[in-house]
């Protein structure tokens, strides 16, 4: 991703026109015919072929030669479109280092033009197991194949951005949603580390009470995290918390809402008992979260 950010300056307007035309063509084709790319881009076919060779060298597209010559975007190509949109919108000025790698996302440090530190999260749905994604994410429709990861990753980022906007407006302890383009989400930076990485907490009760308070606030906004664990609770040096990773959220009206809420709470409670010896019953936690 950092390599791509550095090389954005090597691409011109026509390069991006071809990349966007490929993106459009991939809605109906796995490999987009060159003639269709030329049609969508309104560029001469010879010019399109020259640009595709350049983009292929940059590893932004991949070519198939069979019944016809076709191209599709690579992960790098899709990243390039999103990063360029962030730069053109004045959202990102400087792209920093990688902060973390998850099963379904990559997270990076960045700065806005005003010098504000932000986090960039690139959704990578299906990177490790597309079968698991179709099983666990209710917004992934049957019949979707691994070649469809672009729109699924975009949908995942859109869902998380939607959840964060609601939660942040109700003062739930979540990162501030700043901007979204395609599969990339820009959020306010949270100083701290995952709860799972803490070997000691001076007052475990205070931290778990903060977590439950914010699960409760989210619940009364109509939202259940759906995948809560010690790996998506950030604890700051001041022992405040922030809950991250919301693309799998469900409404409290979802048929599985109660089950998912109980699973979220059980995950957190089990961790505190196992790691810090602090015990709280599931029924007590559940009653606190759902009561008015």
As residue ranges, the low-confidence spans are none
Main CATH class of the largest domain: Alpha Beta
Please state roughly what percent of the residues sit in beta strands, choosing from under 5%, 5-15%, 15-25%, 25-35%, 35-45% or over 45%.
15-25%
The tally of domains stands at: 3
* Helix coverage percent: 40-55%
Give the termini distance in whole angstroms: 45 Å
Order of the strands making up the biggest sheet: 4-5-6-8-7
| Inertia-based shape | elongated
Q: What string, H for helix and E for strand, traces the elements in order?
A: HHEHHEEHEEEHHEEEHEEEEHH
CATH architecture assignment name of the largest domain: 2-Layer Sandwich
Query: What class do helices, strands and sheet pairing give?
Result: alpha+beta
Main β-sheet description: 5 strands, antiparallel
Description:
The chain is of the alpha+beta class and 292 residues long. The protein has three domains: 76 residues, Arc Repressor Mutant, subunit A, CATH 1.10.10; 98 residues, 2-Layer Sandwich (Phosphorylase Kinase, domain 1); 98 residues, Transferase(Phosphotransferase) domain 1 (Transferase(Phosphotransferase), domain 1, Orthogonal Bundle). 44% of the residues lie in helices and 19% in strands. The chain has ten helices and 13 strands. The strands form four sheets. It has a five-stranded antiparallel sheet with strand order 4-5-6-8-7. It has a three-stranded antiparallel sheet with strand order 1-3-2. The mean pLDDT is 91.
């Amino acid at each position: 991703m950092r390599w791509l950010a550095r090389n954005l300056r090597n691409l011109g307007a026509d390069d991006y026109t071809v990349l966007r035309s490929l993106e459009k063509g991939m809605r109906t084709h796995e490999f987009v015919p060159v003639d269709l790319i030329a049609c969508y881009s309104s560029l001469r076919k010879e010019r399109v072929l020259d640009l595709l060779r350049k983009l292929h060298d940059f590893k932004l597209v991949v070519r198939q030669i069979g019944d016809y010559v076709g191209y599709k975007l690579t992960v790098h190509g899709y990243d390039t479109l999103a990063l360029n949109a962030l730069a053109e919108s004045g959202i990102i000025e400087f792209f920093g280092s990688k902060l973390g790698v998850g099963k379904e996302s990559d997270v990076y440090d960045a700065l806005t033009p005003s010098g504000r530190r932000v986090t960039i999260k690139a959704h990578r749905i299906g990177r490790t197991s597309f079968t698991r994604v179709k099983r666990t994410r209710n917004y992934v429709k049957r019949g979707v194949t691994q070649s469809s990861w672009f729109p699924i990753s975009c949908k995942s980022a859109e869902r998380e951005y939607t959840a964060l906007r609601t939660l942040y407006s109700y003062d739930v302890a979540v990162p501030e949603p700043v901007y979204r383009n395609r599969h990339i989400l820009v959020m306010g930076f949270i100083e701290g580390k995952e709860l799972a990485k803490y070997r000691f907490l001076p007052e475990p009760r205070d931290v778990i009470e903060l977590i439950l308070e914010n699960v409760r606030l989210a619940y009364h906004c109509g939202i259940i995290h759906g995948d809560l664990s010690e790996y998506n609770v950030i604890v700051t040096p001041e022992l405040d918390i922030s809950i991250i990773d919301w693309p799998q959220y469900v409404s409290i009206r979802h048929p599985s809402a109660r089950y998912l809420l109980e699973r979220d709470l059980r995950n957190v409670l089990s961790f505190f008992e196992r790691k810090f010896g602090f015990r709280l019953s599931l029924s007590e936690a559940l009653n606190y979260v759902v009561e008015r």
